[in-house]
Amino acid sequence: MNQPAAPTQPAATLPISAGTGLPPAFEQRLREVLRSEVEFIELIGEDLVAAGGKRLRPLVTLLSAQALETQLLETQALGDQVLDSPAHSPDALALAVCIELLHSASLLHDDLIDDADTRRGQEAAFRRYGNVVSVMSGDFMLARLLMLLSELPGTARLTRAFGEVASVICEGEVLQFQVAAYGNPTQEQYEHIIYGKTAALLELAAAAPALLQDAPAEHEQALRQYGRELGMAFQVRDDLLDLLGREEDLGKPVGSDLREGKATFAVLHLLQTPAEQEVRTILLRRAAQAGDLARVQALCVQYAADQAGWREVARRLELARAALLHLPDTPARQELGALLDRLTPLP
Questions:
Q1: What is the per-residue pLDDT for 114?
Q2: How many domains does the chain have?
Q3: Residue 280's CB: how many other CB atoms inside 10 A?
Q4: Which of 99, 144, 161, 220 is the most buried (most CB within 10 A)?
Q5: Residue 106: helix, strand or coil by DSSP?
Q6: CA angle at residue 211 from 209 to 216, to 5 degrees?
Q7: Are residues 125 and 105 in contact, defined by beta-carbon separation less than 8 angstroms?
Q8: Which among 16, 27, 9, 13 has a CA at the least distance from the CA of 335?
Q9: How far is Cα 34 from Cα 106, in angstroms, rounded to an integer?
Q10: Beta carbons within 8 Å of 254's beta carbon, 6+ residues apart
Q11: Are the C-beta atoms of 263 and 283 separated by less than 8 Å?
């Protein structure tokens, strides 16, 4: 079938970075924490380390920890790499590993729930090792996370924060299925879902160093806002690309959300236009008929739902950028801003 071309977007709207920008000490610590005498758990852990991925969340944690430092020993020009300086304290590295463990555990569970074939270009763990092994390996990561947290200063505050976010992640995933089942999605529900799916963990990734270091409340709130808005922008962007991107760029089929009955930002925009009934019908039948996806893509262009989505991404990123102004002007703060630049859609 002929599909309309998605709106042309710059490279900045595709995957953030080819490299992780994380110090070797992070990967080494992550590998150590994931060691197990049980071969299948060990193999899943090795796959996690080898696959890498963007590692956005632990990167935000380490940069936030650096941004809270009043002095940095190195002030060299920033590139794509995070400074591997004494600012990466053992506690900050452990906290970044905790963030990655929570994220990775949720992905193991999500892949099974979504019946995904691949993760980061590799066969999904539950398809290679079975459901039980995949779920229990995710639980193993959560257990190791708790062990790491117990060794950090401010254990009670950090454990509570991680527990709250884990609950929000679960609620966001279940709410997404609930909304799809009832078939009457709203913008408020969508924002609740993407906060749980993505923004809550990025908010924690940014703010956890403030809890670790007992930073001033102003700095903690600034980092919370930065992480929350970055996460909301990231998920809206991801949802737009899922509907309007190209499979060769994304590395996965386009339109998976629509086929699962999930109303994302652009679809919700269409539900406020004269195309409402047609779009709602396609959504309820989960784009099961030939041409459904192409029709929704065409309607997105016709009613500028794509443009509305990119404006929302830009708005969220500006809120995140404004939050950074409440932090000391350090190279790490500049690098946190550079992460936003990689997501910003250009005119």
A1: 62
A2: 1
A3: 17
A4: 99
A5: helix
A6: 95
A7: no
A8: 16
A9: 15
A10: 242, 243, 244, 245, 246, 247, 293
A11: yes
* 112 has a pLDDT exceeding 80: no
Q: Which two tokens stand for residue 45?
A: 């852990």
Q: Quote the domain boundaries for residue 108.
A: 15-341
Sign of CA dihedral 158, 159, 160, 166: positive
Q: Compute the residue count for the chain.
A: 347
With H, G, I as helix, E, B as strand and everything else as coil, classify residue 118.
strand
CA dist 15 and 250 (Å) reads 8
Q: Which two tokens stand for residue 324?
A: 């950074």
1 is a domain residue: no
> pLDDT class for 119, splitting at 50, 70, 90?
low
Rounded to a whole number, what is the largest CA-CA distance in the chain?
60
Examine residue 3 and state whether it is found in any structural domain, yes or no: no
Closest CA to 7 of 339, 279, 315, 237: 237
pTM above 0.90, yes or no: no
Confidence of residue 72 (pLDDT cuts 50, 70, 90): very low
Asked if 213 and 223 count as a contact pair (C-beta separation under 8 A), the reply is no
Residue 145 lies in a domain: yes
- Mean pLDDT, the chain, integer: 84
Domain with 281 in it: what CATH number?
A: 1.10.600.10
Residue 68: Cβ within 10 Å count: 23
Helix (H) / strand (E) element for 220: namely helix 217-244
Triad 337, 7, 269: Cα angle to 5°: 85
The CA distance from 105 to 34, in Å, is 12
CA 111 to chain CA centroid, Å, is 15
Q: Which two tokens stand for residue 174?
A: 């279940």
* Residue 9 belongs to a domain: no
Q: How far apart are CA 329 and CA 334, in angstroms?
A: 7
Cα–Cα distance list, 267 to 144, 243, 262 (Å) = 39, 9, 9
Highest mean pLDDT among 5-14, 110-119, 317-326: 317-326
